[in-house]
Amino acid sequence: MDAKTIILEVLKNEGEPLSAGQIAEKSGLDRKSVDKAMKSLKEEELIVSPKRCYWTPKA
Fold it and tell me: For 18-35, how does the pLDDT look when each residue is reduced to its tens digit (9 = 90+)?
């Protein structure tokens, strides 16, 4: 699985907004790859930020 898929799964399973650090911790990915994948997910509008620095999958 690629990092984007893993991040989306973590966000869907948690059911609450998570920070990039929490996503890295729960997914087992390193922070740099999480940041890079999240940038791509934001551009694709697959994740949204309900509050500053926290992310959740787009409904």
Answer: 999 999 999 999 999 999
CA dist 29 and 6 (Å) reads 9
Domain total in the chain: 1
* Domain carrying residue 31: 3-57
Q: Do the beta carbons of residue 20 and residue 34 sit within 8 Å?
A: yes
Does residue 49 contact residue 14 with C-beta atoms inside 8 Å?
no
| This prediction's pTM | 0.90
Domain containing residue 46: CATH number? 1.10.10.10
